[in-house]
Amino acid sequence: MLIGVPKEIKNNEYRVGLRPASVQELVFRGHQVIIENNAGAAVDFPNEMYVHAGASIATTAEQVYREADMVAKVKEPQPAECEMLRENQVLFAYLHLAADPLQAELLIKSGATCIAYETVTDNQGRLPLLAPMSEVAGRMSVQEGAHHLGNAYGGRGLLLGGVPGVAPANVLILGGGVVGENAASIAIGIGADVTIVDRSIDRLRDLERQFSGRARCVYATTAAIEEYALLADLIIGAVLIPGGATPKLISRDIIKGMKKGSVVVDVAIDQGGCFETSRPTTHQQPTFVVDDVVHYCVANIPGGVARTATMALTNVNLPFAVQLADDPIGSMLRNDNLRRGLNIYKGLVTYPAVAAALGYDYTDPLDVLAK
Fold it and tell me: Count of domains in the chain?
């Protein structure tokens, strides 16, 4: 199979879908790889490294999409990229379709086989291709939140961990999954007063043990969320419904009641966000203010540390990329975990949460892959 890696074109996105070591592995297994010119240059993977690994260099994205049997990306294809996809071509990338009806429409129209990193599972039901980016985003969310609490950025002028004689900032984390756990780890390490809310008692028990009581672990009722949100200086939105739209846990009325200069960081913005006032932003213009509350809603947070994020992603996407390159349809038929990544197949929506969120009919992938 010929695998193509285009240069990412989303605003301030510098990650790359395969690193040279990944290319070398695919070439060793008998596949060909074509990389768009300078696709990895921003993360210190120059063309020469890819050529040494066995790849060829394409002068344009159009060449990559025209020649490749499978396109390995990082972020969801932008409209111009969707137009270049074709029937029977495999797309392997983060898609987050539930919050992006235009992308879904274009991918359906393309006829391509679209596999979303964020819905591939492992044997324990976890999300192995989402986890490393969630780890990065969770850690960065506190870093960015602490930064924007500074006066120069519209914040309250608080040091997250305080100093002797001055209380630390109050941090509320919505969701105790991978993002929330990593956010809590950093916030606790800095010395903040941390509250985590989640709807799983078992998960709250795990976090209570992990952090040895250094974080307040609270069951996520509507009343509890409102109570702690109004006390918070920084809220991290870390909620995930795999493949589906994120519920709006913080209403506009709650935002209005928060302290002036408080900061909210919506890590869930890719899936629609968990603050009613959220809208996607970029690393170039990361924040906006609603009712005196600073909103940080960057839709590709890990892209801000692109080399770390690329290394973390390509550590986990390579085994799946190899399976798809060897036999895309057979691999999905044999492997339930990989098949759960299939969101769109030949114009049909094959992931239930995406179909529900966007109003499409759902088609069981087993009904169409074997045909």
Answer: 2
Mean pLDDT of 164-168: 97
pLDDT at 320 over 80: yes
Residues 231-263 have pLDDT tens digits of: 999 999 999 888 888 999 999 999 999 999 999
Domain with residue 287: its CATH number is 3.40.50.720
Q: Which of 31, 96, 148, 295 is catalytic?
A: 96
Which residue, 267, 299, 331, sits at the end of a domain? 299
202 noted as active-site residue = no
* Among 198, 233, 266, 270, the one annotated catalytic: 270
Q: In Å, how far are 257, 312, 316, 341 from 122, measured between CA atoms?
A: 41, 17, 11, 11
Q: Is 283 a catalytic residue?
A: no
Non-local (6+) Cβ contacts of 152 within 8 A are: none
Host domain of residue 196 = 131-299
